[in-house]
Design brief:
The structure holds two protein chains of two kinds. By secondary structure, chain A is an alpha+beta fold. Chain A has four helices and two strands; from the N terminus they run αααββα. Chain A has helices at 3-7, 13-33, 38-52, 83-90; strands spanning 60-67, 70-77. By secondary structure, chain B is of the alpha/beta class. Helices cover 42% and strands 16% of the residues of chain B. In chain B, strands 3-4-2-5-1-6-7-8 form an eight-stranded mixed sheet, sandwiched between helices. In chain B, strand 3 (75-76) and strand 4 (83-86) form a beta hairpin. In chain B, helix 1 (16-29) packs across helix 12. Chain B is globular and about 60 Å long. Classes of the chains: A alpha+beta, B alpha/beta. At the A-B interface, helix 1, helix 2, helix 3 and strand 1 of A face helix 11 and helix 13 of B.
Chain lengths: 91, 269
């Protein structure tokens, strides 16, 4: 080990790695116990929406955010602007 | 119509994911629309190396099973606009991928990208075969070390026998050798296989030599592929590798031991 390295502060990248791993391992430990429900949940919500309006699969965005112990599931559905389309899908 | 490139090695821990991440990033930095796919079902790691692990919602298996569209599952890279990551599933096992399912997803990827980089799992089992099956070109990642060279040789045989091109009697996959963790000072001391030794043993055209470098660990710690660290020798070596892949003439660099002055040795810069 060189002289300067001994004096210099250790590089911070290991701390970043630890923090990232803590977050991802905590999440995966939860996922392992629980069901992989996100795709199924999205399908169900889509099915409900489809009863009223016709929405393309690509116009549904599901994002998952984690802040500490909180999980935020955000579902963003872009409804078609065309009124006729809405009526035709309503039935 | 995209070109599909598999990054493979047989042996684990030689730098497949590091290479996939930097190589795909390099293609994207040069303006090519690129997707990088993690084929290591059950042990995903590409997301960590790319630094997008917190943004994973859907994965490869979800797309294959029509539980999500490809567009929904692809994660846009934070460092390059042209790059998208398709993560592996962490909760399924390697049998979750089916031949037909992968075929369909690959076709969809081919239609919308210039390059599709497939990060293969280690081993020569189903997951690795799936990763190489659709390849047009292959990067064989090898360390200058006996077991890695032997496994690469085995993998070259599998590329020539089990890929779609081989099975259907098409043009063979174009193979490229990428030597990683190369330590010129150890080669000079006769402790490590040289580039010439490895090339002689494997007889595959050399695409790049990535020197052993501390910056690779820093890069994976931070979740930013090492190619973005343009000060590091390995980052520069990946840039050269991508340039050569795209047809540019670039001399190999970082092949001789760096001469350090007494002052640099003392201060370790």
């Amino acid at each position: 080990m060189s002289l300067l390295r001994r004096v210099r502060q250790p590089s911070a990248s290991a701390a970043v790695a630890k923090e990232r791993l803590q977050v991802i391992l905590a999440r995966e430990n939860v996922d392992r116990d629980g069901p992989d429900y996100l795709p199924a949940l999205r399908q169900d919500i889509l099915a409900v929406i489809a009863k009223y309006v016709h929405v393309d699969q690509d116009n549904i965005k599901v994002t998952l955010d984690r802040e500490g112990n909180r999980e935020i599931l955000e579902l963003n559905v872009t409804l078609p602007g065309d009124n006729k389309e809405r009526k035709s899908a309503r039935r | 119509m995209a070109k599909v490139i598999v990054v493979t090695s047989g042996k684990g821990g030689v730098g497949k994911t590091t290479t996939s991440a930097s190589f795909a990033s390099g293609l994207a930095l040069r303006g090519h629309k690129t997707a990088v796919i993690d084929f290591d079902i059950g042990l995903r790691n590409l997301d960590l190396i790319m630094g997008c692990e917190r943004r994973v919602v859907y994965d490869f298996v979800n797309v294959q099973n029509n539980e999500a569209s490809l567009k929904q599952a692809l994660i846009r890279d934070k460092n390059s606009d042209n790059l998208y990551v398709l993560p592996a599933s962490q909760t399924r096992d390697k049998d979750a991928l089916t031949q037909e399912g992968v075929e369909r997803v690959m076709q969809e990827l081919r239609d919308s990208f210039d390059y599709v980089v497939c990060d293969s799992p280690a081993g020569i089992e189903k997951g690795a075969i799936m990763a190489l099956y659709h390849a047009d070109e292959a990067l064989v990642v090898t360390n200058p070390e006996v077991s890695s060279v032997r496994d690469s040789d085995r993998m070259l045989g599998i590329l020539a026998a089990k890929s779609k091109r081989a099975v259907e009697g098409g043009e063979p996959i174009r193979e490229h050798l990428v030597i990683t963790r190369y330590a010129p000072n150890r080669v000079a001391q006769g402790e490590m296989l040289s580039i010439d030794d490895i090339q002689e043993l494997l007889s595959v055209p050399l695409l790049g030599v990535i020197p052993e470098s501390e910056s690779v660990l820093h890069a994976s710690n931070a979740g930013i592929p090492v190619i973005h660290d343009s000060k590091s020798t390995s980052g520069q070596a990946y840039h050269d590798t991508v340039a050569r892949f795209l047809g540019e003439q670039k001399a190999m660099r970082f092949l001789v031991p760096e001469k350090k002055s007494i002052i640099r040795r003392l201060f370790g810069t």
